[in-house]
Amino acid sequence: KVIHMNFLSFLIANKLWLSAGFLLALSSSFGQTFFISIFAVEIMHSFNLSNSEWGTIYASGTLLSAAAMIYFGGLVDYYKTRYISVLVLGTLTVAMLTMANTGSVAGLIVTIFLLRLMGQGMSTHLAHVAMSRWFSRYRGRALSVANLGYSLGESFLPMFFVAILVWLPWRSVWLFSAIFPLIVAVAIYCALKDERSPKSFKEDKVSFGIGGRHWSRSQVLKSSIFWFAFPGLLGLPAFGTVLFFQQVNYAALKGWDHLSMVKAYPLFTIMAVGVSFLSGSLIDRHGATKLIGLYQIPAVFGFYVFSICETVMGFSIGLILFAVTAGSNNIIPNAFWAECFGTSHLGRIKSLAAGIMVIGSALGPLISGVLIDVGFNLNSQYILFATYFILSSALLFACTRKILVNN
Questions:
Q1: How far is 366 from 203, CA to CA, in rounded Å?
Q2: Nearest to 362 by CA among 121, 108, 180, 179
Q3: What is the DSSP annotation of 216-240?
Q4: Average pLDDT taken over every residue of the chain
Q5: Own/partner pairs, 397-403, CB within 8 angstroms, 24+ separation
Q6: CA distance linking residue 302 with residue 315, whole number of Å
Q7: How far is CA 34 from CA 37, 211, 346, in A?
Q8: What CA–CA distance (Å, rounded) separates 407 from 281?
Q9: Which helix (H) or strand (E) holds 362?
């Protein structure tokens, strides 16, 4: 029996499953704030919206998707990933086509709802649950590989599509982009013919949680551990979303060209990817519980730098700091849920965390947009965000202590 496996051997032996996780994470880009916000100016102009009105519409569609995630997220406990992937990515394609054609505010809200539910919500959820469930000994590595898809999308898609907007109308860009999730759906369906079914997991392939048992979703909701972690779950999606959602406003506030600013994003990706793989390795060695209280601290310094910097170089330094937190965010928390509460009901448990994440990503732009309209600029907001991360990190440390005591 092979106890240890080098990284290259791990990739080769699990290439189909890892590719599925990577492609799902990459496809989530089209429902993520960093992609949708590229078109913020064009959308507000086309629908005659103010910052607060656009933020409200975005928040409305996103909050509806958060509520839907509580139900849809649990489906991965019962059905194979290949089937749900086709449903999710097919619906994401329809949403992208709708964005290219909708002419009403109501249609825009529905479109945002579907993009957020199937993109940010379900595509990400499927990738994380699949990696956490399919892999035990090398869970950290698997999550790191899947997260690489998200990191690449976050870095290179904004730069690519901002450049394309110079040549093509924004609706045509959405039409062109809709081809990608459709191709990925077919690829995953074909690649996962031998996928392990959720109902046929062998007991030795299932990981137990605290107390040597599998926690149900209702038991998790009654646990103080979940509520200690709640502010951390909410804050990073909320304020990390603002960073990308308000990228156009931020560039204008600083007096920078938008394209010059997004050219710094590859630095973010390089750091985020490196930290992602480092986090995966550390999890496989030490466990996510010992790391959960540390990973948000770099974001404190990152947002402080964003508030005071005056050059794109300064912004790049802030991005690198924030990337340390962002790179570990999709690795450490996801492994944390599996370690604490087991994998038998992971789909339903993770749907709670995913719902909170989506709620945070809705509240962040809404609050930020209103604050901008009343004269509270992004420099001041980012100081408040840094303070929040200090408090959430303190609670995550307390959460870690409770877990170690219980074990």
A1: 45
A2: 121
A3: PHHHHHT-HHHHHHHHHHHHHHHHH
A4: 85
A5: 397/293, 398/228, 399/225, 399/228, 399/229, 399/292, 399/293, 400/289, 400/290, 400/292, 400/293, 402/224, 402/225, 402/228, 403/210, 403/225, 403/289, 403/340
A6: 9
A7: 6, 39, 27
A8: 23
A9: helix 346-373
How many whole angstroms separate alpha carbon 77 and alpha carbon 196?
Answer: 12
What's the confidence (pLDDT) of residue 407?
A: 58
Residue type, 47: F
Q: What single-letter amino acid sits at 322?
A: F
Q: In the predicted model, is pLDDT for residue 204 greater than 50?
A: no
Q: What's the one-letter identity of residue 30?
A: F
What's the rounded Cα separation, in Å, for the pair 199 and 325?
35
Work out the number of other CB atoms within 10 angstroms of the CB of residue 191. 17
> pLDDT confidence of 195, banded at 50, 70, 90?
low
DSSP-based helix, strand, coil % in the chain, nearest 5: 80, 0, 20
Contact 102, 313 (CB under 8 A): no
Q: What is the dihedral of CA 107, 113, 118, 121, to 10 degrees?
A: 160
CA–CA separation, 402 vs 228, rounded Å? 9
Pseudo-torsion of CA 54, 56, 61, 66, nearest 10°? 140
CA 195 vs CA 21, 35, 198, 226: distances in Å: 12, 31, 9, 31
At 288, phi and psi to the nearest 5? -75, -25
**Residues 38 and 162: beta-carbon distance below 8 Å:** yes
Residue pair 321/299 in contact (Cβ under 8 Å)? The answer is yes
**Of the candidate ranges 93-107, 111-125, 156-170, 344-358, the one whose mean pLDDT is the lowest:** 344-358
Backbone angles phi, psi at 136, to 5 degrees: -115, -65
In this structure, what token pair is assigned to residue 194? 């031998």
Using pLDDT thresholds of 50, 70 and 90, give the confidence band for residue 70: confident
64: its two tokens: 């509806």
Structure tokens at 65: 């998707």
Within 10 Å of residue 201's Cβ, how many Cβ atoms? 14
Q: Which residue has the higher pLDDT, 30 or 230?
A: 30
The 10 Å CB-count burial string (b at 16+, else e) for 269-286 is: bebbbebbbbbbbbbbee
